[in-house]
Amino acid sequence: GMLTVNLLFSVNAFLSNTCHLKSKFECIHEGNAQQGNPILLNDIFTELIITEGGSGGVNNEHEVRLIEEASKNKGMQEKTIQYNDIFQPLPGQRKRIRTVLTKGIAGIGKTVSVHKFILGWAEGKANQNIHFVFPLPFRDLNLKGNGKYSVMQLVHQYFPELKDLKSIRSEKVKIVFIFDGLDECRLPLDFKNNEMCCDLAKKISVDVLLTNLIVGNILPSAFLWITSRPAAASQIPSECVDQVTEIRGFNDSEKEQYFRKRFSVPGLADKIVAHIKSSRSLHIMCHIPVFCWISATVLEKMLGRSGCIEVPKTLTQMYTHFLLIQTHLKNKKYHGMIQDEIDLTQSDKEMIIKLGKLAFLQLEKGNMIFYEKDLTECGIDVSKACEYSAICTEIFREEFGLYQEKVFCFVHLSIQEHLAAVYTQLQFVNSNMNILRKNTENQREIVKMSHLHKSAVDRALQSENGHFDLFLRFLLGLSLECNLVLLRGLLSKYSVESLDETVDYIKEKIRKEFSAERTINLFHCLNEINYNAILDEIHSFLKSGRHCETELKPDQCSALAYVLLTSDDVMNEFDMKMCNTSLEGYRRLLPVVRTSRRAILAGVNLTDESCETLALVLQSVNSHLTELDLSFNSLGDLGVKLLCAGLSSPHCKLEELNLSHNELEHIGVKLLCDCLMGLKLEKLDLSYNNLGDSGVKLLSAGLKNPDCKLKSIRLSGCCVTEEGCIALHFALSSNHSQLRELDLSYNHPGKSGVRQLYAILEDPQQRLKDACEITLDPNTAHRTLSLTGSKKVTMTKGEQPYPDHPDRFEYYAEALCREILHGARFYWEVEWTGNVVYIGVTYKGINRKGRGRDCKLGMNNKSWILFCSNDYGYYVSYNNKETVVPTPPNPSKRMGIYLDWQAGRLSYFIISPERVYHIYTFHTTFTEPLYPGIRVEIMYLFTRQIPEFVSVL
Fold first, then answer.
1. CA proximity to 454, closest of 476, 480, 432
2. Whole-angstrom distance, CA of residue 192 vs CA of residue 235
3. Are 435 and 486 in contact (CB under 8 A)?
4. What percentage of the chain exceeds 90 in pLDDT?
5. Among positive and negative, which fits the CA dihedral 734, 740, 744, 749?
6. Helix (H, G, I), strand (E, B) or coil at 702
7. Which residues contact 206 (CB under 8 A, 6 or more apart)?
8. Is the terminal CB of the chain with fewer CB neighbours within 10 Å at N or C?
């Protein structure tokens, strides 16, 4: 039991710790720490989902973009972790979980989850194997930055009731340190250069103490729970973290549950839920519990009374109403004043301006927390600031015992960004100042609103972490009359200016902006000021169904990306080639990949930067991508190296990956093999890359690993010889291989290699799937075509005595194969002699009677062909549209045909002993099953030539 161990501490110390933490955390104040009536945490707490894993690296997206992605996660299967089980190994994990890093955007519920964990322990309901819990928020540890402490001295600073506890050195004493709010840490946390210390009694700086505690030099038996916003999480070295988790926030049903718990007035919750759902931007933001509280505060006031003015539909309206309502409630509570929300006293105006200045200056510095000196610099009387604690939370140091200094922050980053935008707007209107301009020497000149907006757009686009994205949306929104009316009590003059120049400038930036992610926010900005002309064009484009006929400019591709990314639906398939656009247009569509289950990016000339973007998509916890086609992109080994950063992420959900025709060599294969272990990948296509035997040997070693889940590998045209086949034989013969399908068409296995692979096929214990055979159908063959068996056709001078059949071609020398090709991938080869042959595929409905184009392969909309001739070269044809294709000198007469029915691709290759030449790929959408077919013709040159034979291999 808990107290049966030979403890080095008194029972009184333990009881003091539990009682102190229970009294501290059993109540919660929504939105802030001291405002309003306390509510029992167990009553208000809505279960938050903590999920396993988290992407590595620094996240440079604004957190509102992360919310938008998370809002699409309806029905996604997640490996969830209960907050009380945070230190328990997950199924399959065979390691001790010492340090847990939990990520989550601002306001998502990280601190509440920590408090719930502490309360469950203090009440004796969970984790009773733990003896002490020490919550030490970073915002408080910042204030100890200049002092030096031993571990016990630091504990006694925050927990004086444990003064009799002299040591926690014993491994039998189970301790949890909780460091909440890494993103608020102002300590260096220099893991590389800080001195190493293992002495618990030595006095060292808090920074050095923390790094040694996290690394495990001090108290290696202690448990650590660190919480952080995503952007700051990378401060902790990955090797110091045993488990990364992420808090998801509210899903749609939990949003409704929150409002129905909050309001007992009949019908009010229904009205609020209906209104929230009517505005996509509001509905998305309610993913954050704090925003639910903001919305509830505003909408309860507005929908709960008759004759209400316009109910907020945009973020700017919601936040502006919230600011005014909180000011009104403050006056009512502290001064007994009852007035209209829009009417402000002089002291209200002064305080809002000062808080706005504080918000702006700290936003520029990237700070979310600030101290008394920061408030004093902005002229804020700290004693009056607590009146605004619904907006600016005041955390008094005495909350945890010896707290004498005060720490401040805004309830949520978005409130800080809104106040900063309000301050910027007021400085412009009241003082003719553009505070976003770094050079403010000539501020006497007349500042136009468009100049201010241009500065804000530039600032947002220059921000590496997106910290000014939401600020820009708020600033533009505050230019609309509906919001200016609300702020008229703060404005020295009131006038509405045209936004035409601003709109033109944003449209110009959309045309030129290199970052696809940044253009998404610019469309949010246009939406905030009700400019939707570009989006209307895109909606018309989507409704037209003529996607391939209409050429999209790059800025229209950005608009299309915005529309698809902000849609409620997850796409089953996104084919980049559905759009007729330039390479720049394709680049701007890349962000859409994360919202689709299947992405086809074949032949769009992906760059190294595109690979980095794709890697971020694969790392995203919100990505839905399970199938990715990157064929025909010439990525090379460097491109694969960049992709592997995403493939190796625990969040990568890929099950199918096509990297055929990408100039990969054995180095790229080695990188892939390192990623394959632990991946969900089941299908991998590496066809027509120069892997050679060295690459195949690396792949074979990976197949033997029990963690490899690959069931299908395509290695067609990869220069594999007997040596590579032998390596594959040993890999496939291992008990661990799960492979069902292996494509080695067009390689050079040699007799020994073929024998080895056939031995596997004949082994009933093996699970390889037979390749589909292609055989000629005699009931379709023209009477001048003589069939030898089911594989060879020869053109003759006389007619064959075939019986009549409705499927037979009557005029043209054509024949089809028996096999129906549908819904999967197929490869076959054709060898020919003579002068001319047509090789293709067709729907069954091609006409068989008469001399019209509807009977000839490649001359109608039911068939696709490759024309091969010694004298006339090569061309492809569909629906009588011919395209000449280049060929190597003295081309081989052995042709490879690869059909991916589902992806809509039909590829042709020339197969020579030295290498494989890709000559053309049709990209289309197949709507019916296909049948392979051939046509031969007599060509009149100097002499009459008849093709000798065509063989289907």
1. 476
2. 11
3. no
4. 33
5. positive
6. helix
7. 141, 144, 145, 147, 149, 154, 187
8. N
Structural contact between residues 106 and 251, judged by C-beta atoms closer than 8 angstroms:
no
Pairing of the two strands 99-103 and 596-600: unpaired
φ, ψ of residue 225 in degrees (nearest 5): -120, 120
- Please list, in sequence order, all residues whose beta carbon lies within 8 angstroms of the beta carbon of residue 59, skipping any fewer than 6 positions away: 66, 230, 231, 233
Give yes or no for a contact between 834 and 936, defined as CB atoms under 8 angstroms apart. Answer: yes
Within 8 A by CB and 6+ apart from 336, the residues are none
| Mean pLDDT along residues 591-617 | 88
What is the CA 419 to chain-centroid distance, rounded? 30
- Identify the H or E element spanning 317: helix 315-335
The CA-CA-CA angle for residues 948, 950, 953, to 5°, reads 145
The tens digit of pLDDT for each residue in 778-834 reads: 999 999 999 888 888 888 888 899 999 999 999 999 999 999 998 887 888 899 888
Element (H, E) at 726: helix 722-732
CA distance 205 to 917: 66
- The radius of gyration of the chain's CA atoms, rounded to the nearest angstrom, is 34
Q: How far apart are CA 483 and CA 487, in angstroms?
A: 7
**Which one is predicted more confidently, 75 or 234?**
234
Helix (H, G, I), strand (E, B) or coil at 409: strand
Instruction: Write the single-letter amino acid at 516.
Output: A
Q: pTM to 2 decimals?
A: 0.61
* 3 state DSSP class of 675: helix
Q: Which amino acid is at 332?
A: K
d(CA 527, CA 518): 15
Residue type, 610: S
pLDDT for res 584: 85
Closest CA to 187 of 203, 210, 171, 168: 210
Question: Tell me, what DSSP letter sits at residue 432?
Answer: -
Instruction: Give the pLDDT of residue 151.
Output: 93
CA–CA gap between residue 128 and residue 150 (Å, rounded):
27
pLDDT tens across 373-392, in order? 888 899 988 776 666 655 55
User: Which long-range contacts does 573-576 make (Cβ < 8 Å, 24+ apart)?
Assistant: 573/597, 573/598, 573/599, 573/600, 574/598, 574/599, 574/600, 575/599, 575/600, 575/904, 576/600, 576/601, 576/602, 576/604
Bridge partners of 603, per DSSP, are none
Lookup: tokens for 667? 């180095």
**What's 134-203 look like in SS3?**
EECCHHHHHHHCCCEECHHHHHHHHCHHHCCCCCCCCCCCCEEEEECCHHHCCCCCCCCCCCCCCCCCCC
Residue at token pair 């700070």: 367
* Residue 354 contacts residue 392 (beta carbons within 8 Å): no
Q: Which two tokens stand for residue 337?
A: 């004043």
Rounded Cα–Cα distance for residues 498 and 239 (Å)? 55
8 A C-beta contact, residue 230 and residue 249: no
Q: What is the pLDDT of residues 823-873, one digit of tens each?
A: 887 888 899 888 889 999 999 999 999 889 999 999 999 999 999 988 888
Sign of CA dihedral 673, 679, 684, 686: negative
Residue 686: closest CA among 660, 664, 710: 660
